[in-house]
Specification:
- The structure holds two protein chains of two kinds.
- Chain A is mainly α.
- Chain A is 52% helix and 12% strand.
- Chain A contains five helices and three strands; from the N terminus they run αααααβββ.
- Chain A has helices at residues 3-12, 18-27, 30-52, 60-74, 79-104, and strands at residues 120-126, 132-137, 144-149.
- Chain B is α+β, with helices and mostly antiparallel strands.
- Helix content of chain B is 18%, strand content 52%.
- Chain B contains two helices and eight strands, in the order αβαβββββββ.
- Chain B has helices spanning 2-18, 46-53, and strands spanning 21-30, 57-67, 73-76, 82-91, 95-104, 107-117, 122-129, 132-140.
- A four-stranded antiparallel β-sheet of chain B has the order 2-1-8-7, with helices on one face.
- The longest helix of chain B is centred in the first third of the chain and has 17 residues, at 2-18.
- Residues 6-18 of chain B have low confidence and may be disordered.
- The chains are: A mainly alpha, B alpha+beta.
- At the A-B interface, α5, β1 and β3 of A face α1, α2, β6 and β7 of B.
- β3 of chain A pairs parallel with β7 (122-129) of chain B.
Chain lengths: 161, 141
């Protein structure tokens, strides 16, 4: 910054003494002097205006920021929309699980009949012709019995492990 | 997220199949006065054994549970003397279709094909032993 610019800034800001101001103004041409005077008048008017504004806090900018924060806090939140999205995501997962189950476990969706829960002997054949084997349903109607006749008797003193 | 859901579903499906097995047991049934207390593992079978075979006291000589896979052959060995060779022919949600061969020592006693449902046991009347009766049990568990 040159000496002239430095002095010009001080003049506009009103930081010169009376002697300095007169000397500096004498060095200016008419147009520069008129422009500078108008600028100084505007600046002084703005300073006065700023002094007239009432602020809740001595720090005007902090007060403004505080007002903006309070305004944003009062805004309605987007919670319902988020919950709605989560509900759809959950329903989608359940539908996918059901579809995969139907594809991978087709029998899982078939209606069950009573026969599905009953044991049945399809065939029973003894290895030794001297032994007979026949089958029937247990009295509980669910279990099954294979009855062998003619197997060798095991004496009581013989060990069975 | 998608990978996690898929992995959980596959894990669940695997669990359904992996939890299936066959429990087999060798039981000695006798008549005693007073009747002997039924072993805890045989409580569910005691009423049917009493009705079908006519014995009031039970001894559990051995039991074993084994996981089985479809189309495989396995040995079920509830005791050293009596055991089964089991072939799983087909597995469905509620039952197994199995082929069983019952052995005493190394001699085959019986060959049977059974549709074995869950909680619906198979009772096999074995040889007489002394004053009692040997009974073999099979159940899906």
């Amino acid at each position: 910054m040159s000496d002239f610019e430095h002095d010009h800034t001080r003049w506009l800001d009103g930081q010169m003494s009376e002697t300095e101001r007169r000397k500096f103004e004498a060095s200016l041409d008419a147009a520069a002097l008129e422009e500078g005077v108008a600028w100084r008048a505007l600046r002084e008017a703005m300073v006065r205006r700023a002094g007239e504004i009432e602020t809740p806090s001595p720090d005007f900018f902090n007060a403004g920021i505080l007002r903006e924060i309070e305004r944003k806090v009062r805004l309605p939140r987007a919670e319902p929309k988020r919950w709605f999205s989560l509900a759809w995501a959950g329903a989608g997962c359940l539908a996918t699980a059901a579809l995969l189950s139907a594809v991978c476990l087709p029998g899982a969706f078939r209606p069950r009949s009573e026969a599905d829960f009953v044991s049945q002997v399809v065939s029973a054949r003894a290895a030794n012709p001297a032994i007979s084997a026949y089958a029937f349903q247990a009295p509980d109607h669910r279990g099954a019995v294979i009855w062998m006749e003619g197997t060798d008797y095991i004496p009581g003193d013989e060990r069975v492990r | 997220m998608r990978r996690t859901i898929f992995a959980l579903l596959m894990f669940g499906t695997g669990c359904v199949h992996a939890s299936n097995g066959v429990w087999s047991a060798l039981v000695l049934a006798t008549n005693e006065t007073p009747a002997r207390e039924v072993p805890a593992k045989l409580e569910a079978f005691a009423p049917t054994i009493k009705k079908v075979f006519g014995y009031n006291s039970l001894y559990l000589l051995g039991d074993r549970r084994k996981e089985i896979d479809s189309g495989t052959e396995d040995w079920l060995v509830p005791s050293e003397d009596f055991f089964f060779q089991l072939t799983s022919l087909r597995r469905e949600e509620t039952h197994y279709a199995i082929r069983l061969e019952l052995f005493r020592d190394k001699s085959p006693l019986l060959t049977t094909e059974v549709r074995l449902a869950r909680n619906a046991p198979l009772y096999i009347r074995g040889p007489q032993w002394g004053a009692g009766q040997l009974i073999l049990l099979l159940e899906i568990r």
